Amino acid sequence: MRLILNNDTTDPHLNLALEEYCVRNLDPAEPFLLLYINDPAVVIGKHQNTLEEINLPYVRDHGIPVVRRISGGGAVYHDHGNLNFSFIQRFEQGQMLRFEEFTRPVIRALAGLGVHAEPGKRNDITVAGRKISGNAQFTTVHSMLSHGTLLFDSDLDRVTEALNVRMDNIASRGVKSVRSQVANIAEFLDKPMTMDRFRDHLVRSMFGGRDPVPVHRLSEDDWNRVRELADSRYRTWDWNYGMSPRFSIRRVHRFPFGELDARIDVREGRIEAIRFGGDCPDEGDPAVLESCLTGTRYDEESLRQAIRKLDAHAVPGGLEAGRLVRFLYG
Fold first, then answer.
1. How confident is the model over 210-226, as pLDDT tens digits?
2. Could you tell me which of 13, 52, 67, 215 has the fewest CB atoms within 10 Å of its CB?
């Protein structure tokens, strides 16, 4: 096994692009290990509905990016107190979903620190019944990726807030996360240690104390292709939000002029259909607004631009564009 060096980048878009590039392009004849730490971000599974997994106002107000990964599983929060590990190796039939094969070395490394971890029931690792690691997998024809998180000293309040969904009546075909009681590994250590020391211990354990550890350095051409992948996929709205499964959402709010009720169907990130109801006044023509918004990308700026093109008299109750966008999107 060889350790992939990620040049100490903490950019979540770049690190997820690096994972995908490596599993698709490195020769799996020899296994690889990648370790990385991300700046604060919410990372969601490939098949999840982004808006169903995040606390949108919170991540927006705190400037927390949301990034979709290529593997399945649930949504997780990353920050500088979370260490991510990725095993990349040749894919063989029957390996998928055998998570213990990949979590066993991690559990062994934790035991070396006096932390008594064990496999959980949902592809995770637990200590004293509390989740410290979630895991997911992805395969190509020839290679497979099994990766996971290690909550070492994360801000658990932010974990809770960022993943505390506050949407009204959303119905989706996406894979929903299962919330678990989580804990930091640091809570179970006899003596405090830094993240750097924890990472070094993990590497020494996984490589059986080999010194020096065999490494794999990507070429500059490799890194250019990783950056291109990050820009073309992982930094895009189409991948992180637009790839969400089809979903429907209902928004209801009582304004001074009366109650406004919106039923919104979203497909491939765009409004497929929208219907307004409630006890709205005669002012405004819901049909005009519905026609204007149909086909619009379901994000704040796109909604705002579409609504600003309308005459104010076409908007129910004469609502200002900003208030209507907050009502429709949150």
1. 889 999 999 999 999 99
2. 215
β-pair partners for 148? 85, 135
Nearest to 86 by CA among 142, 152, 141, 21: 21
Cβ neighbors of 326 (< 8 A, separation 6 or more) are: none
Task: Give the pLDDT confidence of 24-70 residue by residue, as tens digits.
Answer: 999 988 899 999 999 999 999 998 988 888 998 899 999 999 999 99
For residue 149, how many C-alpha atoms fall within 13 Å in the half-sphere facing its CB? Answer: 28
Amino acid at 83: L
pTM: 0.83
Cα angle for residues 212, 215, 219 (degrees, 5° grid) = 145
Please tell me whether residue 239 adopts helix, strand or coil conformation.
Answer: helix
Rounded Cα–Cα distance for residues 269 and 247 (Å): 9
Asked if the peptide bond before residue 212 counts as cis, ω within 30 degrees of 0, the response is: yes
